[in-house]
């Protein structure tokens, strides 16, 4: 699946890159545009949430160990040009602090991008607006011109018109262009997939997203508490091999 030619966005003498949004060969699963940055954020967020689970919990110990292992693998895979991009990104955030609002919730509301701290790491999470294709919208053949005004305008209504005319267009506001992290090469993606050993990198992202959501459920259920009804002796030994026979 990974070697199909239509997944290559560009073929260069030194590096090949996968085309974001192209089919992966798995139904409904498209090539991820920035799997490394996404996994770093998801894994760091999972580790941050796990701090609410007692350290003696086997659930926390197992998820923490696996997440840290995969996080280390992703961190060690650095795309070409990453150092230059990181320097520019840090400078951009420092010069435009008002454009990158700090938050602990990770919710991007009212801003195009926010700074989020997760497990000691700082991320810039972009707000991606969904593009609406007007061709997919229903149309009844009529043009919506708004409510019809009748009669003469009052002084109050005319003052509102003047006020609206004086307001500046929101599109005139300064927009800081955030450049996405450089892509991993096709060879780097394939190598990382081999190291993780859990399918395509897009599947790994899906698992990480599910694990992050699951932490909230496990915390709510308090899975570390003792069972109300204690298991009888030998209840969990059904499949143990009897060495005496």
From TrEMBL:
Membrane topology term reads: Peripheral membrane protein
Q: Where are the transmembrane segments?
A: none
Q: What is its main location?
A: mitochondrion
Q: Which UniProt keywords apply?
A: Electron transport, Membrane, Mitochondrion, Mitochondrion inner membrane, Respiratory chain, Transport
**Entry annotated with the keyword Transport:** yes
**InterPro entries attached to this UniProt entry:** NDUFA5
What's an example GO BP annotation here?
A: respiratory electron transport chain
Its localization reads: Mitochondrion inner membrane
Q: Which GO terms describe its cellular component?
A: mitochondrial inner membrane
For the keyword Transport, the answer is yes
The entry sums up its family as follows:
Belongs to the complex I NDUFA5 subunit family.
Q: Name the chain's protein.
A: NADH-ubiquinone oxidoreductase 29.9 kDa subunit
- In its UniProt entry, the species of origin is given as Coniochaeta pulveracea
Tell me the lineage of the source organism.
Eukaryota, Fungi, Dikarya, Ascomycota, Pezizomycotina
């Amino acid at each position: 699946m990974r070697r199909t030619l239509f997944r290559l966005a560009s073929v260069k003498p030194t590096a090949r890159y996968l085309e974001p949004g192209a089919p992966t060969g798995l139904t409904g699963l498209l090539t991820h545009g920035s799997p490394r940055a996404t996994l770093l954020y998801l894994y760091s967020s999972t580790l941050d949430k796990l701090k609410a689970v007692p350290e003696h919990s086997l659930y926390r110990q197992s998820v923490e160990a696996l997440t840290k292992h995969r996080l280390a693998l992703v961190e060690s895979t650095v795309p070409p040009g990453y150092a230059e991009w990181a320097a520019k990104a840090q400078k951009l955030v420092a010069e435009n602090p008002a454009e990158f609002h700090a938050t602990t919730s990770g919710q991007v509301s009212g801003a195009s991008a926010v700074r989020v701290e997760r497990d000691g790491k700082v991320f810039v999470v972009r707000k991606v607006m969904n593009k609406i294709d007007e061709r997919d919208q229903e149309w009844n053949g009529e043009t919506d011109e708004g409510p019809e005004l009748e009669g003469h305008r009052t002084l109050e209504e005319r003052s509102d018109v003047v006020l609206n005319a004086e307001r500046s267009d929101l599109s005139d506001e300064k927009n800081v262009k955030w450049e996405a992290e450089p892509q991993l090469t096709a060879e780097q993606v394939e190598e990382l997939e081999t190291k993780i050993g859990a399918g395509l990198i897009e599947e790994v992202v899906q698992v990480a997203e599910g694990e992050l959501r699951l932490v909230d459920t496990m915390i709510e259920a308090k899975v570390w508490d003792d069972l109300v009804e204690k298991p009888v002796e030998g209840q969990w030994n059904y499949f143990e091999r009897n060495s005496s026979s």
